[in-house]
Write a structure and sequence with these properties.
Blueprint: E1 18-20, H1 29-35, H2 46-49, H3 51-62, E2 67-72, H4 75-84, E3 92-97, H5 100-111, E4 115-120, H6 129-138, E5 144-150, E6 152-153, E7 158-159, H7 162-171, E8 177-181, E9 200-204, E10 215-220, H8 222-229, H9 240-244, H10 259-275, H11 277-299, E11 305-306, E12 318-322, H12 327-339, E13 341-345, E14 358-362, H13 369-385, H14 394-402
Parallel strand pairs: 1-13, 3-4, 3-5, 5-8, 8-9
Antiparallel strand pairs: 2-10, 6-7, 9-10, 11-12, 12-14, 13-14
Helix pairs in contact: 1-10, 3-10, 4-5, 6-7, 11-14, 12-13, 13-14
The chain binds pyridoxal-5'-phosphate.
Pyridoxal-5'-phosphate is lined by residues 23, 74-76, 101, 150, 153-154, 181, 183-184, 204, 213.
């Protein structure tokens, strides 16, 4: 007896899914394969031997000659680590904000007893460095110990000019440390820690570095090291001194190493340096410009808008968009259910019904032209399926950019 035919509509989400959110990002198969192994010896052998080259190659991505401390933790851990080494209870920090993540870092500082001066620039504009300079100039007693600057705010997709902040700080002769959050930008957007005068930089492995979430990094220079030396007390676990210059292997991590992450990270760094930093940045720029070209066409009719109007202030790793509520959520749900394509939610961009207006594309790390065309084609499919008004010809516009136009 034969079974009746299955007449359900075909499942067009079947196949390999595509997580196009701004972190965790797409992991290269080579990274996953490097992690697929038995636990290594943590007392001698390959794992121990790989550390000097690993930290050197991490510093090459950060463009620094200085030190790095590695933590088993996410980006929030790196935030806390950076502050724990430099900011004592009662110290003041200046936090310019162009989105959700600046508030997160500010909150972390408050939790450690710092006094936070928040400079709000909204969710659609980058920092105005003149206002940062004014705030520093007004601080004649030099109570502000650090400026906490998010390079790319992943919620708004605004990219801030970190070098301009250093210049503003130098112009008013303020001795505060410049700290940058490059969690969403390292390995995607151009970043030059030493050349831009950044004293402390925090990042994590699950975005531009293409490794599953679980390790994070604090890079620091000699000025930051001097600030650390003046701290009345630093908790043993967060202390970056033994992690950056360990006498024994266990001190890199203050305990058991993140064994498999280190193997994955090794391969990810090899991929990045084989491509070359300039090429990695150029690839992100090209692919981002293709996305923006498509968005401009869609936006020519109907309610779709990119959050950041000026391309000069956009991240090349994440794009925040809006549609009329609730179409942002409808679109995300539809492409996930019907295409296996997962877009980012609008993080901290709106409350209540408004939150259904926003969505984001992650285009960081292990992404190429066919993936971006797939992402854009998927979004266009969703716009058509849901009858959301949009301009036509977006894929043509993106294709021209990817092909070199
Ligand atoms: C992702 C992100 C964070 C938080 O990182 P977690 O790993 O989620 O703790 C902080 N800042 C920025 C800019 C980010 O993109």
């Amino acid at each position: 007896m034969s079974l009746p035919p299955n007449t359900a509509p075909p499942n067009t989400a079947h196949g390999r899914g595509y997580l196009a959110i701004p972190g965790p990002s797409v992991m290269p198969d080579a990274v996953l394969q490097a992690m697929h192994r038995a636990s290594p010896n943590i007392y001698a052998g390959a794992l121990i031997d790989m550390m000097p080259d690993l930290t050197r190659d991490l510093c090459r991505v950060a463009r620094t000659q200085h030190d790095v401390a590695i933590y088993i933790g996410n980006g929030h851990a790196a935030w806390e680590a950076a502050l724990s080494n430099t900011i004592a209870p009662g110290d003041r920090v200046l936090v310019p904000s162009s989105g959700h993540f600046a508030h997160g870092w500010a909150d972390m500082a408050e939790g450690l007893g710092a006094q936070v001066d928040l400079l709000e620039f909204g969710k659609q504009s980058p920092f105005d460095v003149n206002r940062i300079a004014d705030a520093l100039q007004a601080d004649t007693a030099h109570e502000i110990k650090a400026v906490l600057a998010v390079h790319v705010d992943t919620s708004s997709s605004i990219r801030n000019d970190i070098a301009a902040i250093r210049k503003a700080m130098d112009d008013v002769n303020h001795p505060a440390l410049l700290m940058a959050d490059c969690i969403a930008s390292l390995g995607c957007d151009t970043f030059e820690m030493d050349a831009w005068g950044v004293d402390v930089m925090v990042t994590a492995c699950q975005k531009g570095l293409m490794v599953p979430a679980g390790t994070s990094f604090v890079f620091f220079n000699d000025r930051a090291g001097a600030a650390r030396a003046k701290m009345p007390r630093v908790s043993r676990y967060w202390d970056w001194v033994p992690r950056a210059n360990p006498d024994g292997f266990w001190q890199y991590f203050n305990g058991t190493a993140p064994t498999h992450h280190l193997y994955g990270l090794r391969v990810a760094l090899d991929m990045i340096h084989a491509e070359g930093m300039d090429q990695v940045w150029a690839r992100h720029r090209r692919l981002a410009r293709a996305i923006w070209a498509a968005c401009d066409v869609w936006a020519s009719k109907g309610g779709l808008r990119m959050n950041v109007a000026d391309p000069a202030h956009r991240s090349t790793a994440v794009t925040s968009l809006r549609l009329d509520a609730p179409d942002g959520t409808r679109l995300r749900d539809w492409v996930e259910d019907n295409l296996g394509l997962t877009l980012g939610i609008g993080l901290g961009m709106g409350e209540g019904r408004e939150s259904d207006a926003f969505f984001r594309f992650g285009h960081m790390g292990h992404v190429n032209g066919q993936m971006i065309m797939g992402l854009l084609g998927g979004v266009e499919t969703g716009l058509c399926a849901l009858d959301i008004e949009h301009g036509t010809g977006a894929l043509d516009a993106a294709a021209k950019v990817i092909a070199g136009g």
